[in-house]
Amino acid sequence: MACSETSETMPLVMNWSIEDTRQFLNKQGFEEDTIKILCDINKLDGKCLLVLNEHDFTTEPLCKLNLRDRKNLYVLCKILQRDNQNTLIELGILENHNVSLYSPQATYNKLESEYCESERVSPPISDDGRPRYPPEKRKALLSFLYVVGVTWITAFVMVIVHDRVPDMKKYPPLPDIFLDNVPHIPWAFDMCEVTGTILFTMWLIVLLFHKHRFILMRRFFALSGTVFLLRCVTMLITSLSVPGAHLQCEPRNYPTGGNSLFGDLAKKLSQAYLIWRGAGMSIQGVRTCGDYMFSGHTVALTMLNFFITEYTPRHIYYLHTLSWMMNMFGIFFILAAHEHYSIDVFVAFYISSRLFLYYHTLSNNQALMQRDSTRTRVWFPLFSYFESSVEGIVPNQYETPNEIVSNICNFLKGIFNDVRDHLISAVKSSTATNEVIESVSRTIVENAKDK
């Protein structure tokens, strides 16, 4: 249907006369008998066409129309209602508690339909009908602080579980189908971390050129932080035996003394800082044991892979293929190095991928958000906060290097102007304070002279 093209050359739907409606229906291909019933006999104008509902299609005269025209008219009405939601709000047909798609208080009319069980008329996305994608840099900063805090907690928990690792002589490696049938490859774990580094570099390049980089950043930080926070719980509550005899894992012995409590805590914090600084990577000199359920390396590889493939154009299939291959090869290298059990890797991949998909399913489907908004706020508080202003699927739009440089210059210029304004206001305030002090001093001196 070409209703958008027709509406550009005609008055607003609300202002259509019977003759305008007749011309519109004629251009849409409706039969003359149908147009005669609607416009000549029932005097259908633009306002009546706009407010037709499902009940009208089950009663005369619409139920008397032939099947083709009745279906086409139904679809046409839905398109017009979608494109004229502000008008429906003014008429009181559609309630507007809040324009935001994600408002927890927003409730909209549900109409029983002959075509489906129930339907939801969505509120207008924005004043101009286009979705908004505000960068909200403050939220990006909060998500970054969140993931930094989680990585600190993870590092500290890794120190604790290392000291609780079971004795290798008393608790040998558990039976594992993959580890029992694949020989140990000493250099495989380093290759896994090299693979992860390459994926991370690819992700940084995507962030650099993506127009909505701040939305991507806060999603990446929020999801990564949440998965690693869950990992802290799983590796703390149960200590698995060391998966390979080649691993030299023994609890650290801390010196005891009068200040053993504080000394022990200081030692653990020092070890946690070394793990945090090296990002838990063996190529950075970090070696830990006991942090098996589930694999943090698999989480990192999977998250990077999913974000790269989600926020790059679909036609760049070779990049997506490369990303998936690196993800799978990275997982293979983890197992080939006998650094994790197979169940550690499987659970890590499953949790990371499911959480990514659930998060993006909710953020991309406003109907799910509206229907279970209260439940979403309870179970996904970070999601409800970070995605409250994002309307619809984030498009993969990119900026040129010139635009990136221009944005950086404007950002720095804004900071400079803010600092300058702050200094000017501080100087003015200081000057005013000095004037008050001088005035008070003169008054005191004059009073002293009079005495």
From TrEMBL:
UniProt GO molecular function: ceramide cholinephosphotransferase activity; sphingomyelin synthase activity
GO CC entries: endoplasmic reticulum membrane; Golgi membrane; plasma membrane
Record keywords, A-Z: Lipid metabolism, Membrane, Sphingolipid metabolism, Transferase, Transmembrane, Transmembrane helix
Record Gene3D superfamilies: Transcription Factor, Ets-1
Domain called Sphingomyelin synthase-like: residue spans: 288-361
Superkingdom per UniProt: Eukaryota
InterPro entries, alphabetized: SAM/pointed_sf, Sphingomyelin_synth-like, Sphingomyelin_synth-like_dom
Places the protein is found: Membrane
BP GO terms, sorted: ceramide biosynthetic process
Bilayer-crossing regions: 140-161, 187-209, 221-242, 292-309, 316-335, 341-359
Membrane topology, from the record: Multi-pass membrane protein
Main location: membrane
PANTHER family: SPHINGOMYELIN SYNTHASE-RELATED PROTEIN 1, SPHINGOMYELIN SYNTHETASE
Family that this chain belongs to: Belongs to the sphingomyelin synthase family.
Protein name: Sphingomyelin synthase-like domain-containing protein
Source species taxonomy: Eukaryota, Metazoa, Ecdysozoa, Arthropoda, Hexapoda
